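Example 745.
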Amino acid sequence: MMRIAKYLKPYLPLLAAAVVLLFIQAYANLSLPDYMSHIVNVGIQQGGIADAVPEALRESQMDSLTLFMSEDDARRVLADYQLVQPGDSQSNRYLSEYPALRKEPVYVRRAINTAEIAAINPIMGKAWLVVAAIEQARNNPAMAEAMGLPGAGAAAGAGASDPFAQLKTLPAERLSRIASAVDRKFASMGPKMINQAATQPVKAEYAALGVNIAKLQTGYMLRTGAIMLLLTLIAAVTAVSTGFLSARIAAGLARDLRAAVFRTVEGFGAGEFDKFSTASLITRSTNDIMQIQMVAVMLVTMAFYAPIIGVGGIIRAVDKSASMWWIIALAVATLMVAVLTVYKVAVPKFKLIQRLLDRLNLVSREALSGMMVIRAFNMQPHEEERFDGANRDLTSTMLFVNRVVVGMMPFMFLIMNGLSVLIIWVGAAQVSRSTMQVGDMIAFMQYAIQIVFAFLMLSMMFIMLPRAAVSAGRVADVLETEPLIKDPSSPESFAPGYDGTVEFRNVSFRYPGAEEDVLHDISFTAGPGQTTAIIGPTGAGKSTLVMLIPRFYDVTGGEIYVGGKDVRAVNQHDLRDRMGYVPQKAALFTGTIASNLRYADEQASDKEVESAASISQASEFIATLPGGMKATISQGGVNVSGGQKQRLSIARALVKKPPIYIFDDSFSALDFKTDANLRRALKEQTASSMVLIVTQRVSTIKNAEQIIVLDEGRIVGRGTHRELMDACSTYREIATSQLTTEELA
Ligand code: ADP
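Predicted structure in complex with adenosine-5'-diphosphate:
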């Protein structure tokens, strides 16, 4: 995977944008359970009252509260409120909201920030609870006794006089004792529970002020609900955006990789093609890159999202209930065992699938391209069996892997639901002990599920990654292949002009990995305006020899000069620009006849194209085709005969008008008459060029200026037809076997 990481570079800005969006998405998703717990805790249970710092309270109530605060605290709380007297200039503003203001003075909270509210909340919260407890104690003598209230016993009971009036007269030391007695009562409650308990007296105070409590509660619910809706919207928008970005990154990466593979393969010499088979190169640039693309989408969205959710979820869950962390740990541990099991079972199979896929491709390629031969030999049942075998293996392995992965799903849900049950079980006990709020328990449950989900996402990725890593490795193998044939670092350029001289100096050659040289000590010069022929039995090394001239392979000994330059000293492009190479196996491309002929020179005029076709004896059959020059050539040129293909391939080289022509056995599929006509016409067009003809047919080259006889990679004779007939026994053998006595003369 790392080997292709550099191809991600252009997408780093997009990736950064995706990560930012993922953070926002995670934040929104993690906030939702929190707001939900607010709705349950504050909205439902506390009647929409969030804390112990009311927006307004009667002066009499404030006086009672401050009794149970230190002097500093009381000063701080009072500074945050403003006293409004009935009938003063401010009162009209608040009258509709707090009708009690008509009769008595009211403290209205100033515009203080949330930090200040949070700071005075515990101070007021405790005071509220103490005051509420004392209120309760008015009707409960035992409680009053326990708290050490003044006049307990005597004054207790229904209709007792206002205890606060008496309390005010007590020394501070007595008061603090009362307060700490109440404190003890609430000792088991955390600050959150104290806050929640304190909202009850706050609610009662609002009622006393004449505030519409139902409206207050509905308002809180609607506000929180609106925020949750907004968060959901943000989460949705960011999810869609990251999906879009990840698709873009992955598709772009795949496109770049495909282009890079194609470019690299274009630079491959014949040696590299021998190493990677064509089928494998195709699989690598399609299927393998597809795998990488799929995992890239997952990586972008999950690799960042899962850890954010995981860590964020844990922080928030522990904040909701620190005592239940072990439930999450238990769930994650169980999942880990399950995922590891799947990993162990499925991942080796994933690798196997890739290999089986290769085999299926191979079998079907062979069967499809050799279908005629298969039919001719009546081997269909055998091929079917072979295909069935490969197909069955692949199917059963895929089924196995899918069963394992699918079987994992119910197990995951079992764990998730078990997790919820366990949280409710443990949480309910805590709720009943008043150590936890209901909303927090529900939020904890949602966080736990999010954490488990994040963990699942990560583990899924670890299961998918090895498969993509295999593909990435296969692609990187191609990309990192240094072509054996490279352009020189400081290339020389050809002298201007039309020099087609080719010179071999003591050339020897061995195929990469072969044990023996195919060519030994070859030296000859082929001059412009001449036809040089190379003849010899099959396997003598004729094709190998001519492939060295366009540098399809590099010589392993000696040098080859073209136009006076060593072929390794000039750019491959410049070198090949000077040549019209007609290979043994003519290859045409999908398109029309004209587009194939203009392959080397798009600008060639109709006249030039037609003249090339006429020299190569192709005009006649082109005229018989529907559409003539515009007739379509189907894939690989299968809709024209072998001889027609050769003629078109020769015409294609002629349109280029290069100083060097190389015909590698290009006349073999032509009948003798066409062969002769073609050579005559060719002679005129190529008068000043160097023509190199490889052939096994003596008649084709009888008039060549120079004939080189090759046998087992060595030159065994050189000269004209006549000279060789006298001097070279190998040539004589070939010639006498092919020509009549008259022709030999
Ligand atoms: P000719 O064209 O004279 O029939 P070739 O030049 O095609 O002969 O082949 C010469 C020898 O080189 C043969 O023995 C053949 O086995 C070997 N040869 C051809 N192509 C390759 C290759 N790509 N890798 C290894 N050996 C090869």
